[in-house]
Amino acid sequence: MTNQPIRVSKSLLEDYVNRVFLAAGLDQEQAAITARHLVHANLRGVDSHGVSRVDVYTKRLEIGIVNRDLHFELERETPASALVDGGNSSGIALATKGIELAVKKALQTGVGIVGIKNSNHCGMLGDYTMYAAKHGCIALATTNAPPNMAPWGGRERFFGTNPFSYGVPAGEEDDIVFDMATSLVARGKIIVAQKNNQQIPLGWAISKDGKPTNDPNVALDGLVLPAGGYKGYGITFLVEVLSSLFTGAAFGPQIADLYKNFEQAQNVGQCFIVIRADLFQSMDQFRSRMDQLIREIREVPRMDGVERIYLPGEIEREKTADRMKNGIPISVEILQEIRGVGQRYSIVDDPLFKEIG
Ligand SMILES: NC(=O)c1ccc[n+]([C@@H]2O[C@H](COP(=O)([O-])OP(=O)(O)OC[C@H]3O[C@@H](n4cnc5c(N)ncnc54)[C@H](O)[C@@H]3O)[C@@H](O)[C@H]2O)c1
């Protein structure tokens, strides 16, 4: 069997994943939201947050450590804000509803802030900020995550890889969507390397006794390092404050591990801060100045050996265009894994696997 990834069509992959989540007990709306989100991550090249998560998400639903029914309860609300109690339901469905509500409030009042507590892993944050940008809003999104990173200088797990993302609408140019883990790389990338039996670059992580490693197994047993040293740690801290201290979700070491703890609800939090882009000037002015900024950045003289300057999110946008046209490359290991998940629910006849033989 080839070790090369196999290109599969977006629609077949999404239909299959949708089927699996329906079989795992999500209702039609949640299954469709979750399938669309995961395949969107693969389309953008964020494979660490794509269909490689189907196995663990379905296991958690099956065991009942994640609630199959969606609870989206508004605990406190103002015209510009809402605190949602997610009732331990699926994180992607909650966060999708959360950003929709934040955008709706921003369009009505100028600003929309939605916090979610009692939530679960919500995938690729850029999906949410991209939605806001599409609706003419500037958005910030945060979530906290299980402890895998030490506070700067420490060597015990405390913070998660606490990602944050922003989205900004442009005019003729594409909207800007920046999306990063505040660790040097998302831990999901190390998990994908482990599943694919690949080494990781030195500098991504350290072993549990503080030594550099390129072995994904040692890294997953150890700690990831913050992006940009103490500066990344400072941003991780802010992400924790917005996602958890602000919303009432669990923080730092209180958060249960997604892959190892099947007994305790995660209780992670998310925060969406959405601002209508025409709050201070007309939308046309804002959009055309964004276009100008983007074009001027492209014209900046480049360092030796640099072929082009990318805008935040541009690499992912180009990957999306390629993958829409030529199919999404998925490793054989991950295809086998998701086929196995389907088999758990007696899904054995899916056209996705007919395509790959
Ligand atoms: N839900 C969770 O608990 C959780 C936790 C951690 C990470 N994540 C997700 O993991 C994903 C991956 O995060 P990551 O930090 O590995 O991403 P990354 O390092 O691949 O990219 C980070 C950002 O940098 C930009 N970028 C990359 N190269 C660039 C270049 N040469 N020039 C300009 N911009 C460039 C990308 O467009 C992207 O916006 C994100 O979607 C994040 O939301 C989720």
TrEMBL record:
Its EC number is 1.1.1.350. The keyword Transcription does not apply. PANTHER family: MALATE DEHYDROGENASE (PTHR11091:SF0), OXIDOREDUCTASE-RELATED (PTHR11091). It comes from the Bacteria. Belongs to the LDH2/MDH2 oxidoreductase family. This is Ureidoglycolate dehydrogenase (NAD+). Pfam families: Ldh_2. The keyword Lipid biosynthesis does not apply.
